[in-house]
Amino acid sequence: MMTERENMLMVFNHQIPQWVPNYGKASQFYFGFGCDRTQNPKTGLFYDRFGVEFSLEGGPLGGYMPTNTKTRNFELTDITNWKSVMPGIDLGTVDWEEETKRMAGNDVRLFYGTESSSFVSNYIVGYLWDELHYMMGFENALYSVAAEPEATSDFLNAMADFYIDCMLEQFKYWKPDIAMTMDHVATKLGLLMSPDSYRKVIKPAQAKIYSVLKDQGIIVETHVDGKVDDIIPDYAEIGVEVIQPLQVYNDIEKAKKDYHMVCIGGWDAFGPGNADGASEEEVRASVRKAMDAYAPTGSYAIWFSGASAVSEEKMFWLNDEAEKYGHTFYGK
Q1: Which of 36, 158, 240, 314 has its CA 20 to 30 A from that of 91?
Q2: Structural domain tally of the chain?
Q3: Which stretches does DSSP call E strand in 128-247?
């Protein structure tokens, strides 16, 4: 019997799989050393390698929110002083074998009710644009991109170098199937900055990381929410093979056809299936709608990024429908 991993690899290879994968079940995410967050048991807050503190909001199904957006106590206020906040970590003192073993012990798939060891391993390299606004806040980060593009680009490239050093050390002991950076450069309306600003400031740092991943034989993925049609050609140019989540505000079929992208997503986070108080049938129908729209041409796995008003019951409906409908889809 084909495993979740084998089925998902067919999608990555642009083959029609046996069933429509649910990426939440078919994969496991690993947070690399460079972007790991450590909890302080005294405060309950989580701290990243760059000193930003986060609170976990909404329980285990919620997300990490930087506390500086509430306190306005930013780690970095002037991008031209970025060198003062770079982490003083001597990577030569890290026991990389033990660190990699520790990382591999976190199994987020248990939420989906499976303990199978046959899944796609998805390594999170780090954050570039996201880390910038974690450290500065959105207003300061956007101002830095516009007013100090060279200094901002230098900072992001230095971060890329740090992440590359970390991941190459971990790859000596273990390699993932796929790896990504997480950079939320868009909303459902479009990019947070002009395409030219993205190309000048953010793209070079991403390209540096993706080039190393390609050299390592690892599938290149970018995590980005929102409408990114304007820069999908740029993603293809720098080696991106998978976009997760590729949301419905984009021309998903064009991305697959013209740029050979694998789409992980296609579920409408602003549709009736994600509304507060949505019925079981509305939730299940949203799964079928996504699969009917994007699965026929392949290169597709469903992903429920953006699920709000989250409850265990709602997540069960989503995942149960993905299992039932997805496993019969290509046999219809």
Answers
A1: 240
A2: 1
A3: 178-182, 186-187, 190-191, 219-223, 242-246
